[in-house]
Amino acid sequence: MDALLLQILNGLDKGSAYALIALGLTLIFGTLGVVNFAHGALFMIGAFCAVFIQGLLNLSYETIDETQKDFLGNPLKVKTPYLENWFGPETGGAIIDWSVPLAILFAIPVMIAVGVIMERGLIKHFYKRPHADQILVTFGLAIVLQEVIKYFYGANPIPTPAPSSLTGAFDFGVLLGFDPNAVIYPYWRMIYFVFAMSIIGAVFAFLQFTTFGMVVRAGMADRETVSMLGINIDKRFTMMFGIAAAVAGLAGVMYTPIAPPNYHMGMDFLVLSFVVVVVGGMGSLPGAVLAGFLLGILESFASTTWATTTIPGINQVIIYVVAIIVLLTRPRGLMGRKGVMEE
Amino acid sequence: MSKIELTRRSMMKAGVAGLATPTVFAGTAWSFTNEPQGGAVTLGFNVPQTGPYADEGADELRAYELAVEHLNGGGDGGMINTFSSKTLDGTGILGKKVEYATGDTQTKGDAARASAKSMIEKDGAVMITGGSSSSVAVAVQGLCQEAGIIFMAGLTHSNDTTGKDRKANGFRHFFNGYMSGAALAPVLANRYGTDRKAYHLTADYTWGWTQQESIANSTEALGWETINNVMTPLASTDFSAYIAPVLNSGADVLVLNHYGGNMVNSLTNAVQFGLRDKEVNGKNFEIVVPLYSRLMARGAGENVKGILGSTNWHWSLPDDGSKAFVRSFGTKYGFPPSQAAQTCYVQTLLYADAVNRAGSFNPCAVVEALEGFEFDGLGNGPTLYRADDHQCFKDVLVVQGKENPTSEFDVLEVVEVTPRAQVEYPADHPMFGGAEASLGSCNAGA
Questions:
Q1: pTM of the full structure
Q2: From the list B230, B295, B410, which residue is nearest A156 (CB)?
Q3: Same topology for domains B8-175+317-394 and B178-311+412-421, yes or no?
Q4: What is the ipTM of this complex?
């Protein structure tokens, strides 16, 4: 029972990331009809927003410490962050310590801008082209974005820790009457799950309860009719691209303490996120979220010792096996709509 | 025309091997593949320039460029001044100016073979060196054997490279999984006691398998019990599903047989799950990373502090060779070299020196010059290139993540320099292919 609970918890945070990325993918596909292979790169750029803010907050001045030597035997140059100089070591250190949460404020406008520029600058030229062309151009764009980030930040992962007060793990086992250490779960992963649920809830609320959202939903159902009513639906869809980019970016920002970011992290999530979208049903927002959590938890179960010893390699193929089963039994995915990608 | 001096033995080897050479590498009238003509000789530097190990590859390339500069008489000469063999005098190799071609392994076996093949066939490289992965090293070593080219391996730590997959044309300066186990286990037993239960997470490929086997054998010999070994896919980015069951398993040590991005992520995840703050079986829970890379360890940030592991070389070593190399490299590039850079630089000097001593670029003459070669002054103390398996035997470093680093490069500190005698093993050791493992015959190609 404790092992079961443990793997469900483990699946939740990975499922949260899948769900957030798949939600953005589905928003873009549902509004603009574009299969966006650059969406993983948006997740990665979001993560590097956190790296950028961490670097910015750590901007330092150098002083020479004659008592210590560097690797060449010269007097050591000691770096002190400006923030610590301006606000004192405690306050300055605390601001630096909270760089990841602070990066959220930076990432939202940046990611919306990146999304809008990407859509207006490149993707809009491919609306009437076949899906294969869209996939090629967005995949190419993802590689370009990766290489740009690698040029500035290198190929190695960059440590981007959570605030020190939010590190450590909570012992659920003790709370639920199990042995100590039986079910432990890091605080930051709990925060990630709550954060993901909040973002998902906010996106659904935005689409459901605002006039803007209502128009977008109408446009998703029948673009031509909405346009004939005199509504500039293209402009709204461009905004939705920006919002989808922001959702992926925020997922990336908050993921950095879980796995130190590198330029390739978007690709690691991209393929799985597409499987999530297909399993959930192309164009279905609730389907994307449901499939994200479902596959995250299943992947977690498949990685247990029991599963890998019973069926060796199951941890590497479980998602694809489930995708095949779902597509054989429900060709439109779990919550797919009729007519989507069926022309 | 270069002067060629061959022994009867090497000529016979070349002849036999030449008959067996695939036609793709035949086609010239020279006595061996890519015999240098004119006043220059080309070396092939095959390193990861793209992909997850690109930073390590960039450091390898810096080291190779420095070695070429020193061989051609530029710079301060670096380790040429401290090398016990005195054949290198800044006039290139056998009087020929050293030039180089580069290839991108992408840390993929097929891409690495393609780039090595291109450098051999199009650039005329007479020696291939570099790499940051054991599967790549094994693949390229096989290609060089077929082509009649010397392969001086870069960073490769799997026992198989000089074990079951050893080749007559291949040489490894870097240490291996067995040596990590032999060096690390006594330090672990000394620090954490002999009554420990270890849980291994292992990268599911040649390097992970051999390292896990080596560490488990060495620690079990000192009283530890290995209670589980879970293989993790190389492409994993989140190890939480593998780490969460560890505390419930009765283990009090977690051994992470991971390298590069895998190591950064698994260690970060393990620390997130609070493993280091726990007490199991009445003891503090400990984490071990058997193979450290300073470049990669930076990625794990503060999580490496106090965690034990092993490394081939470290820039803080006080010997003259290390100091000369760090001075040359640091002055040229502004930061200290990595262990990958050191092994690549040393391999280039060793190859150049072997050619000079042999008086020929003929691969079989070079093989003969390197086999059983004893040297010093290159940063790891007195070293032997063993003839039986072409593995270097030298001191191994046990290191730990530094508690109070003074700079971004100051990530690891040396805990112990394990003497060479402690990490030696017979060439027919079962972990290295047993009695069946063989170098085969040297191949001069052409």
A1: 0.87
A2: B295
A3: yes
A4: 0.85
